[in-house]
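Human: I'm a chemist; would you kindly supply sequence and structure tokens for a protein?

Assistant:
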Amino acid sequence: MGGNTILDLLTQEPPELDNSRQREGKNSDNANWVKVRATDVSPWEDFTLSAIRAAYGDLLVREGPDDNERRVHAEDMTESQCEIANEEAVDHLCLKWCEGVIKKSMKMCAAAIRTRLALDQAEPTFQLRPRDLC
């Protein structure tokens, strides 16, 4: 495992996923699913690691508390949690992996960002619930 900076947390090795049971066809069962045409999408050219480092580099290298037990580890993900067979499986993966990684990173830099933006200090919250993923 690497260090304990925000960048380390956000770039840690993700779990290996198994999508061998994934169905053919659209990737959502959501009734509001809209097929996006390639002509409606354009590359986000200025969303680069250098742009992110220029804006938040000082925060990305900030060391966090060493609370390894709260970190989500790829090797701790069960085989069933890494199996992507349908939309619900992706929802569960986001709840387990993404929320754990993002929540910890946000807590590590929230006070500095709020100070930089002249906002009142508050405990940051980030929580994905299945209804948020629709």
